[in-house]
Amino acid sequence: MKAFYIPLLFLASHALLAQPTKLQSEYLTNPLGIDTPQPRLTWQLQDSRKGARQTAYQIFVSTDSAQVQKGEVWKTAKVAFVRNLVTYEGSALKPYTKYYWAVQTWDQDGKPSGLSSIASFETGHMNQQNWKGSWISDARDVTIKPAPYFRKSFQTTKRVRSARAYIAAAGLYELYLNGQKIGNHRLDPMYTRFDRRTLYVTYDVTKQIQEGKNAVGVLLGNGWYNHQSTAVWYFHQAPWRSRPSVCVDLRVTYEDGTTETISSDTSWKTALSPVIFNSIYTAEHYDARKEQKGWNTAAFDDSKWKNAINRPAPSLHIVAQALHPIRNVEALRPVSMVHLDDTTWVYDFGRNISGVTELKLKGNSGTMVRLKHGERLLENGRVDLSNIDAHYRPTDNTDPFQVDVVTLSGREDEFMPKFNYKGFQYVEITSRNRDLDLTPANLMAYFMHSDVPPVGKISSSNPTLDKLWWATNNSYLSNLFGYPTDCPQREKNGWTGDGQIAVETGLYSYDGITIYEKWLADHRDEQQPNGILPAIIPTSGWGYDWANGPDWTSTIAIIPWNLYLFYGDKKPLEDNYENMKRYVDHITDIAPNGLTSWGLGDWIPVKSQSPVELTSSIYYFVDATIVSNAAGLLGKPAEQQLYASLAKKIQDAINDKYLNKETGVYGSGLQTEQAVPLQWGVVPENLKSKVAAHLAKRVAADGNSLDVGLLGTKAILNALSENGYADVAYTLASKETYPSWGWWIKNGATTLYENWDIQAKSDISLNHIMFGEIGAWLYKGLGGIKPDPENPGFKNVWLRPNFVKNLDQFEAEHEGPYGKIVSSWKRSGTIIEYKVTIPANSTASVFINSKKVKLDGMPIVGTDSKQGFRLLTGNYTFLIEE
Which of 59, 659, 789, 866 could form a disulfide bond with 655, CB atoms 3.0-4.6 angstroms apart? Predict the structure, then answer.
């Protein structure tokens, strides 16, 4: 059957011509302080005409915003190119320079757009040798608990044109100028392997600089650098561990063009702060009586403070932090407060989140208030930590888990942790002072996470399904802190298994490339010369000899490949190619026959355990396949063939040992055993229908219920819906009895759990993303939205909707690099109305399994199994008779 090409009616006189919009540099809007010498420039087209597309572009880059079109830094010719991702190739970028850029495009008729609005990017140090500041600290003793203050007074004698603060820290910091906190970021800089790579952040502080006397202040926290709490991962024994240190360059440019840099050195003064203890893992303790009012202002008398000391730089690789920062994204008021007794109050914020609470309270000086944060309540109404404190190994009782401790000053005190976050729904406040009188207004909560822009939306006629999508997003965000984590309370670790399972879920709903590229750099920092990666990244050294393996640490290949699919950008593959190749080569060394048992396997299944050798070997196959594909894209044909042959060898070894070709059964036919080979393309093409049929039968035999763990969860819904059993997949996805996602929702879940069994005795964190593939499946399995590997970044969109029974309406939206894609369907009797939106400058291949289809009122014959209905930009309505 031939592909059906849609005729287009152009109404140019009634439509706006194409206009480039949403200009970004390195996937950020007007970023400050980037170090890359060749930033990536992207844009979208705003054009409502059917068939709208770009045929050419021209880019202009200048240091003068009023003369951008002169392009004295870079001015391309008119380039015949249909994509909207271009790497800068102009004159060498200079440090501390703001570059303005714009783009003009030509449409399908060869007509030029107007010049886009002007965007910008500003360079930072660009080279480590440009730093002027020294690394300073207050001491060398890692056991000192209070966080240190640092300050420096300085004078400006001329009118200021602009000012930038560049700050790097081994630990965490808050930066102040003239008493004002700079920026709204939390927990800067992001966590890295500190002795191999340290991040710095740039701030525009022009408005905070005063004419005359000024003061810069820094409060420095421990973070993961000086881990004083003890848990099973040995962060307190990290090879980099030391007292936190900081390096600051405050670069002031005057109206006359001269510059002056106020830098950290031993003339800076330091003293201990009221943050008397801070742990990224447990909590924060604050003594309001120790506050020094005005410590970060020019008028403050620091004569009693001591001088800072010089310290060596934590690493030889200090680079710009170019990613969406952590912020307090959403404020929550308590939905209820219970006064249990004279000294105990319990607040319920209505949903499980990652973040902090803010206490505003007045009490007698010296009154100690404890704020215990948890996910569950005991029968007596108090907060229960038993499900999340399993891995904590406290050395004494001075560092309680998830318990902030505040000592009041006698004034109106305000406290919100500066260097910590927690996972919680409930907060129990206790104090021995019976005179305290708390109300709901005394406590606020803030949902805190990497502030990645939302790009996806799901809605349906099934309220449980909608709540499940929302809960999945809550867990995803709760576990995004400059790197993907497993849970925000018990661990905060960058588990690779959770990361690879949830990457599509994240990318369908959020613009997360900046976070993932940073995390991949963490992978490169942690990889051993022989290719081995640890199970958690970053790590202090734990995880190289347990829990890693292809089923977990395939992140090094799976995540770059997904970034390529979702963004159409080869750079993640280029950056990580040698690393993923070295990883695959190591597996080949230890598994020359094509099969490997290295890995954890199908973690926390409902009841049945599949063979580790089967699942790990499949991930080995996936990695080899990705390396082969990457080699082809990067112009390495010999390596493409080498790893394609390796992938075929692995595939044959798996199928020779585990596949019964007569019955279509892998192993003993468990759900995971059937689903994982289907999901990852191991099943021979001529046997897919048999394998899928047995999977559907197995689900029925298991009472139409799940019997999978982590790896099976990633595979089962996709394996069913992509092989003719979408109704079975929907039955599992929408099920509301144990074991299922819906069972959690029906029992009040606002996040995803770590265990199918809510009453399990272990592994029962209530905010885990490990079972989160369902969030991606809603876009893929019901909405049918998928990137086309041949035209990635949704340049061509694959649309394979499944109009499942027992669901009357479904809509998925995803904003890809070219704009918003909509796949929406509604059932009325035997007719499905299916609406599609394809953004400007992209196309779609729509696959509909029906012989009775009308498109925009016009009958059409059918769909080609490979090409589908080929649609150009526009809004379309299909009527499909079931």
Answer: 659
Clarify whether residues 95 and 34 are in a common domain.
Answer: yes
CB of 135 within 8 A of CB of 243? no
CATH of the domain at 558: 1.50.10.10
Which strand (E) or helix (H) includes residue 285? strand 284-287
Q: Is there a single domain that holds both residue 318 and residue 389?
A: no
CATH number for the domain spanning 186: value is 2.60.120.260
The H or E element spanning position 144 is none
Q: How many CA atoms lie within 13 A of 548 on its CB side?
A: 24
Ranges of H-type helices in 722-824 = 726-734, 741-746, 773-777
Our measurement of the distance from residue 406's CA atom to the centroid of its chain's CA atoms, rounded to an integer in Å, reads 32
d(CA 779, CA 615): 25
Region class of 644: left (phi > 0), else alpha (psi between -120 and 50), else beta: alpha
C-alpha to C-alpha distance for 870 and 874, rounded to whole angstroms: 12
Specify if 838 maps to a domain: yes
B/e letters for 393-408, b = 16+ CB within 10 Å, e = fewer, are: eeeeeebbbbbbbbbb
299-346 residue pLDDT tens = 999 999 999 999 999 999 999 999 999 999 999 999 999 999 999 999
Q: Hey, which residues does 166 pair with through a beta bridge?
A: 202, 249
d(CA 206, CA 182): 11
- Which residue is it, tokens 């009472």? 703
- For residue 447, the cross-strand partners are 330, 355
Q: Can you tell me the distance from the alpha carbon of 388 to that of 423, in angstroms, rounded to the nearest whole number?
A: 9
CA angle 630, 631, 632 (to 5 degrees): 90
Q: Is residue 314 domain-shared with residue 333, that is, in the same domain?
A: no
Give the amino acid at 48.
S
Same domain flag for 721 and 860: no
Verdict on whether the full-model pTM lies above 0.90? yes
The tally of CA atoms less than 13 A away on the side-chain side of residue 464 is 18
**Residue 151 forms part of a structural domain:** yes
> What Cα–Cα distance (Å) separates residue 802 from each residue in 728, 729, 782, 821, 823?
11, 10, 5, 17, 11
Distance separating alpha carbons of residues 329 and 337, to the nearest angstrom = 23
Preceding omega of 538 cis (within 30 degrees of 0): yes
Give the pLDDT confidence score for residue 679 in this predicted structure: 97
Is residue 165 within 8 Å of 154, Cβ to Cβ? no
Question: Which tokens go with 442?
Answer: 């005394």
CA 548 to chain centre: 21
Q: Which strands form 19-25's sheet, in the order they lie side by side?
A: 19-25, 40-46, 85-87
Same-domain status, 345 and 259: no
Give yes or no for a contact between 182 and 163, defined as CB atoms under 8 angstroms apart. no
Domain count, the chain: 6
Question: Which token pair is 180?
Answer: 């004002």
How far from 397 is each of 277, 394, 433, CA to CA, in Å?
A: 13, 7, 20
Rounded to the nearest 5 percent, the helix, strand and coil shares of the chain are 25, 30, 45
In tens, the pLDDT along 95-148 reads: 999 999 999 999 999 999 999 999 999 999 999 999 999 999 999 999 999 999
- Whether 504 is covered by a domain: the verdict is no
In tens, the pLDDT along 333-349 reads: 999 999 999 999 999 99
3-state secondary structure of 56: strand
Range of the domain at 135: 131-323
8 A C-beta contact, residue 598 and residue 591 = yes
User: How does pLDDT run across 540-556, given as a tens digit for each residue?
Assistant: 999 999 999 999 999 99
Domain's final residue, options 450, 468, 487: 450
**Same-domain status, 97 and 182:** no
Domain for residue 806, yes or no?
yes
* Residues 113 and 178 placed together within one structural domain of the fold: no
Q: Are residue 318 and residue 362 in the same domain, yes or no?
A: no
Last residue of a domain, one of 701, 730, 759: 730
Q: How far apart are CA 776 and CA 175, in angstroms?
A: 38
